[in-house]
Amino acid sequence: MFIIRNKLYQCVVAASNFLIMTSLCFLQADAGVLQLQNQQLVQQTEVQKQAIQDLEEKTKELKERQNSYDDILIAINQHWDQVIVYYQAPVFVDSALYSFCYFFFQM
Description:
Oligomer: single chain
Low-confidence stretches: none
């Protein structure tokens, strides 16, 4: 009976050791998979950070260009307003100029 009990104990210990080793292998494999996934996520994050930085720089450049366009449009609008005011103002011709033009075109 003692021998059977001892053999049974050895089988249980061997099975336990096998289960422990198998579990450790799975844990190591899971840790390896998690580490690989973590590396991939870090790389994706770096790519996204760079893309965001590039887009922020492009946005800044476009805003600066838009500001210069706005300044040009403001200047053009001011000059256009001056032209409109000039041509809508009544024209006063002095008599000497009127006489000259009248004489010149009569010829």
